[in-house]
Amino acid sequence: MARDYYALLGISRSATTREILTGYQWAAAKWHPQKNPGAKVEAQSRFHDIAEAFDVLIDPLRRQRYDAYGEVGLKNPPLGLDFDPYQYVGDPFELFNKFFSSADPLSVAYEPELESLPVIPSAKETAIELEIECSLGELKEGSSRCVVVERTRLGPGFVPYKEKKPVPLPIRPGWQDGMRIIFKGEGNHSDKNNTPGDLAVLIKQKDGRVSF
Q1: How far apart are CA 187 and CA 119, in angstroms?
Q2: Among 17, 41, 44, 198, fewest CB within 10 Å belongs to which?
Q3: What is the pTM of this model?
């Protein structure tokens, strides 16, 4: 059954960024496994789900996709949608420790009364460019690969952090040397006023031909 990320944090679907932060603070503290020794299995499951819900809702692009397609669509995009399936790969305990290490974890870099106004991004961050080498057989027959992207994303309180994100890359039969595959919004996001950058993967054939 698909999970309701908003319900996990105890917030409404129109919640502001500050309310998402508050919701995570309350829910994570309530369901931390150390606070629930008598229901450890349930607490561990809830604690993980709460971290995943926060990871989705705090990111504007992920939240937009979740609102439009739900958890199932976010993780398994319908045919015709040009975005990568989402998978939570974070550490719920690391997120909790980072979040509560701040003296004021709910502090934000803008005035609260402006939260209800639409935010118009001022720029799009520079794309991350990666190369992946494929054999002639992979390009002819198709294959499945995975690239690990080192990127910067925004965490609690809009504090940038670095992560390594595995991105599945299905090699389609007929792809050619020099093709660029674009994953929209899967690059760096280091400034809340900018839209996330893209991830561009350049396909390069192993036989040494020059890519373009």
Answers
A1: 20
A2: 41
A3: 0.50
Find tokens 């399936």 and name the residue. 85
CB-based burial label for 211 (10 Å; 0-12, 13-18, 19+)? middle
d(C-alpha 28, C-alpha 32), whole Å: 6
Q: Would you tell me how many other CB atoms lie within 10 Å of the CB of residue 144?
A: 9
β-partners of residue 27 are none
For the record, the structure tokens of 187 come out as 């690059």
Buried b (16+ CB within 10 A) or exposed e, 91-113: ebeebbebbeeeeebbebeeeee
Could you read off the pLDDT of 158-193 as tens digits, one per residue?
A: 788 888 888 788 888 888 888 888 887 888 988 877
Which residue ranges make up each domain of the chain? Answer: 5-114, 123-205
Q: Identify the CATH class of 5-114.
A: mainly alpha
What CATH number was assigned to the domain covering residues 123-205? Answer: 2.60.260.20
What confidence tens digit (pLDDT) does each residue in 79-117 have? 877 788 999 988 998 888 877 765 344 333 323 333 333
